[in-house]
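Researcher: Please translate sequence to C-alpha cells.
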Amino acid sequence: MSEIDHSTSFVKVHKVDSAAEAYLEIFRHWGIKYVFGSPGSEYIPFWEALAKFSSLDKFPRYINARHESLALAMARGYTMGTGLPQVVLLHVSFGLLHGAMEIKAIFNENIPMIIIAGHNVTHEDEVWGGTPGPHYLAFSEVGGTQRLIQPYVKWCHEPSTNRNINYILSRALRLTMTEPRGPVFLSLSRELLFEKLSQIEIPTKIQPATSIQADPAAINTLAHQLLSATNPVIYTRYLGRNPKTVEILVQLAELLSIPVVETPAYMNFPTNHPLHLGYNIQPFLSEVDMIVVIDSSSWPPWYPPTKGLQSNKAIISYIDLDPTQLKYPYWGYPADLLITGDSQLVLPALLQILRKKIEDPTRVHRRERYNQLTIQHTKLREKWREEAYASQKNHPIDPKWFCHQLNQAIDKNTIIVNETITHWLTINKYLEKNRVKTGSRFEGAGATASAGLGQGLGVALGLKLAHPNKTIIALEGDGCFHYNPVIPAFGLAQEYNLPFLTIIFNNQAYAAMKHHSRYYSNGYAVSTETYYGVPQKPKVEYTKLLAAFNGYSAIIDDPDKIQSSLQQAISQVNKGKLALLDVILPEP
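Model: Translation complete:
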C-alpha cells in the first residue's frame, strides 16, 4: 500500500526503498523544501534518495553548498525570508566544527533548523554500508558527536534504531518550530542511513506548540503605563522577523502617536512613515518618560546599561520571548517591566486593551505630538539628504554619497543584506527606499545578537533561493568579505542560477579595529602609526574573482560614475549574471 487514510489513523504509510528515503518522506510531509549539504561520504544514501525525488519532481531538493558554513548560512537566509525550517547535512564531527560559528548564530537568532551530522558505530565491515576504511576511526567522538555543539542547540539526539525514527524526526521538527525557536541536532549513524526499509509510518498529529502569550496582567500594566505617559518612545531591532507584526506596530504607534526608533536587523517599521524617527535613541533619552523595547533585549538600544540613561527617570518596559537573555552570562539593563511573550501575540492584545481604554480628551494632545513628530521625521531626512549632497564630490568616494546613490538605484523589489561594521549606521540612514515593505532588509552578521562575520553571502543566497524574482544585494565590508567562503558561494550561485550583487565597501582596512588611540593615546601604535589588526594591504583586486564564475564586476572610484555603475551591475544581475562592485572608500 502507498498511503492510508489518516482520518482513521495517526499515521500515513509510504513505500520506500531505504531509510534515507524514509527520512525525506517525513521532511516532505512537514513542508521541508530543501536539504542543504556540504559533501560527506555518509550521505550517499541521502543522495540516492534525493536523486529519486528529483526524478519524480518531489521536494525536498538538494543544495550542494560546497562548504559547511555556507550550507548553514544559506539555510538561515532561506528561513529568515520564509519562516520555514530547513535541513542541513554536515560531514561528521569535522563538518560540524567547521560550521560551529554559524550554529551559534542560528541558536542566538532563534532560527528553526534541523542539523544532521553522521558518525559510525561499526568498523569490521559487519554491516552493509558501514565504514569504508580506517580513516573512519576518526569520524566518531567519545561521548557522542552531539556533545561538540550541545550548548548551541535546543535539543539533540543520537538514534540507535530506525524502528522509531519516524517519531524522532517528527519530534525534532516539532521542537525546532516551538518558541523560542532554534536549531535541533541529530547524530545519525552511517549504518542507520544505509539501512534498507520498505515503508515508513509518518505521524500526522505532531504539531509545534502554540507560541508564548504574555501574562494578561502584565499587558494591562503596560497599557496603563502607555496611556499615562506623555512622551514615550518605542525601540526595536528584530520585530520584523514576524512580518505580520509590523502592521500591528504601525497601528500601535499611530494610536498613541509614539515615535519608533530602530536598528534594522529586519524591516521593522516603514521608513517613510512620519513616526519613524531614525536609528539613534540617545537624543530621546533625556526627555522621554517611557521607553518600550520590543524584540531587542538581546541588543539593547543604549550603553552602558545604567550610565547610558543619563539619570533619566523613564519607565522602561521590554517585550521579548527571552527578555532576560538566558544565553548571556551577563545582562544588567534596568527595567520596570519585563514581559515574556511573542510580540506577534502581545501587541494585538495590547492594542485591543488600549482601544478600549483610550479617552477622547487625549486626542488633541496626541494629534499635536503626531504633527511635531512628522516635522522631526521630515527634518531628519532633509538633514541626511543635505549631508549626502555635501559629500558628492569627495574623493575617495564618501560612503554617505554612495549609499544615497544606491538608494536611488534600487526599487521596492530589492532585498538588502547588510554585513558591514563601521558603515552600518550610514547604510541605515541613507539606504531607506526599499524598507517600506516587509522582508526587504536582513542582517548578515547577527540579527538578534552579534553572530560572527562571514555569513552575509550565504544569507543572500538563501534569500535569493526563497525569492528568485527579487533583486538581492549583499553589502560587505572588505574585512567581512574576507571571512566569507567566497569561492563556494559564487560557485553555488553559478551552479543553481542564483544571481545576486555583492558590493564591497572597500577602505582597505578592518576599520572597526582601529581603537588604539582610545586606550593608548600616547602609545607606540599612535606615535609610530603601527596599527596592527587594521590594514588590508596590498590592495586586493576583488573584481578578478568574478571571471572564474562568468560574472560581471567593476571598480567604482569616481563619485560621478556611481549611478551608471550601479545601474549596469543591477542590469547584469537581472539578466542572470553574478555581479560584484568594488567601491573605493577613504581609509580610516
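Researcher: Any highlights?
Model: The longest strand covers residues 113-119.
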